[in-house]
Design brief:
Two copies of one chain form a homodimer. The first copy, chain A, is of the alpha/beta class. Chain A folds into two domains: 4-117, Response regulator (Rossmann fold, 3-Layer(aba) Sandwich), CATH 3.40.50.2300; 126-217, Arc Repressor Mutant, subunit A. In chain A, 36% of the residues lie in helices and 22% in strands. The first copy, chain A, is built from seven helices and twelve strands. In chain A, the strands form three sheets. A five-stranded parallel β-sheet of chain A has the order 2-1-3-4-5, with helices on both faces. In chain A, strands 6-7-8-9 form a four-stranded antiparallel β-sheet, covered by helices on one side. The first copy, chain A, has a three-stranded antiparallel β-sheet with strand order 10-12-11. In chain A, strand 6 (126-129) and strand 7 (132-135) form a beta hairpin. In chain A, helix 1 crosses helix 4. The A-B interface holds A 74, 84, 87-88, 91-92, 94-97, 103-104, 106-107, 110-111, 113-114, 117-122, 163-164, 166-168, 170, 172-173, 176, 210-213, 216 and B 1-3, 26, 74, 84, 87-88, 91-92, 94-97, 103-104, 106-107, 110-111, 113-114, 117-119, 121-122, 124, 137-139, 151-153. Chain A binds a DNA duplex (30 and 30 nucleotides) through helix 5 and helix 7.
Chain lengths: 223, 223
DNA sequence: CGGAAATCTTACGAATTCCTTACGTCCCGG
DNA sequence: CCGGGACGTAAGGAATTCGTAAGATTTCCG
């Protein structure tokens, strides 16, 4: 059973072509011939999205932005505009690749393959480590069933760590992922948030310090 | 401390440009101005490789093929050839992206960012030698299942040795890899850390002395 | 066996890294 | 206009790490 791919493409001919090639390559494409409103509920359970930016009515870039609010699914963007500014914008919004039309379907398939080659880890909605539970969908955290109120940034921090439970992450990578690069958040800032988080979680061992490196998500068994 | 990126690019001007942009974006680029033989030993510890396919003498595609034998590091390929067959070949060989020259450096940076946004997987390999276990991802060391607390530098030392278990490494190469060149760590310093490590591991035979040369990772069966 | 070189071990001080608290700012809802 | 929460920064003090020195021990080699 191939991996599921959502293709959002209004052009009949191109869409047919893409879907056929993907199917030949062993994937299971779903074809949306128009840009629909994307939400957690409407997004099908797919492992990758091929998104044409030039959809009538909707602006594909907005779809991408919406999508990234609730999902980390890889997105391969198609566009007729071979314009660096556009590419940069799309990639900044979280696109994983950007192809300029016209292109050979074969290349598209290979780029899809390249994206799906690497397994997505810990990107699932819910991550559970020990007594700690992190629900990305609901943006909720609970310990031993009891809900814990955390701030946006604290949640981001936990979610970042939860992507690879048990693996050490450097401060710099955490900062890059969690802090706003604009607002000069220094790496010291992370310490403060970690500190607050530990207090809220009621157990310091959920976020372990890796001395000289950064932090790591633990199961809270120590301590 | 940004993520390390290896740039393999013979063109002086383009290389300068790329390196500068990457540095501005907060990465730590290393620039190879020629295609060198790639092996587990010669590949620096980087999180991504930018590889120009059109290198004089060597054919970049071969480098890519070699690389994939022993490493899963993401590769972004540059090429002057805007040719689907070439793109497909590179992607099939394990490239993660393919950019056609000329391009705007800004786009390159964004594509690098897009690749590194997702946590690299397949890293954090675990090395086991005898009863010794070294987990690069978790940054943990254990002996016969029992966790052993080691300092950052001690871990680096072990990890360096573990790259070639059983093979002797000179003090100088270990120092280069493990010590901070800034802070004048003399090679004598290594002895001290080896000593501390042996005590922590509870068995001196895991790190064997190679008289007049340096050290070697052993399985701990001696002694 | 003896001496020189290489290595081991220990102790200690300096530097780094980390945690916590306190405080000021910004933004939002009332 | 007034709270209150979220967040960044600063600062102290605690904990950890690391380099160096110095003396002990081992290895090599004649």
């Amino acid at each position: 059973m191939g991996k599921k791919v959502l293709v959002i493409e209004d052009d009949q001919e191109l869409g047919t072509q893409i879907v056929k090639r993907l199917r030949d390559a062993g994937y299971e494409p779903t074809w949306w011939k128009e840009g629909r409103r994307l939400s957690r509920e409407t997004l099908p359970d797919v492992e990758l999205v091929v998104l044409d930016l030039m959809l009538p009515g909707t602006y594909g870039m907005d779809l991408l932005k919406d999508l990234r609010v609730f999902s980390e699914v890889p997105v391969l963007v198609l566009s007729a505009r071979n314009d660096t500014a556009d590419k940069v914008r799309a990639l900044r919004l979280g696109a994983d690749d950007y192809m300029t039309k016209p292109f050979w379907p074969e290349e598209l398939v290979e780029r899809v393959r390249a994206r799906l080659r690497r397994p997505t880890l810990g990107r699932g909605e819910v991550v559970e480590v020990g007594a700690l539970r992190i629900d990305r969908g609901r943006r909720e955290v609970s310990v031993r069933g009891g809900r814990v109120e955390v701030t946006r940034l604290e949640f981001e921090l936990l979610a970042a760590l939860a992507e690879r439970p048990g693996e050490a992450m450097t401060r710099s990578s955490l900062a890059e992922r969690v802090l706003d690069p604009e607002r000069d958040g220094t790496e010291r800032t992370l310490d403060v948030h970690v500190s607050r988080l530990r207090k809220k979680l009621g157990c310091g061992a959920f976020v372990e310090t890796v001395w000289g490196i950064g932090y790591r998500l633990g199961d809270g068994r120590d301590e």
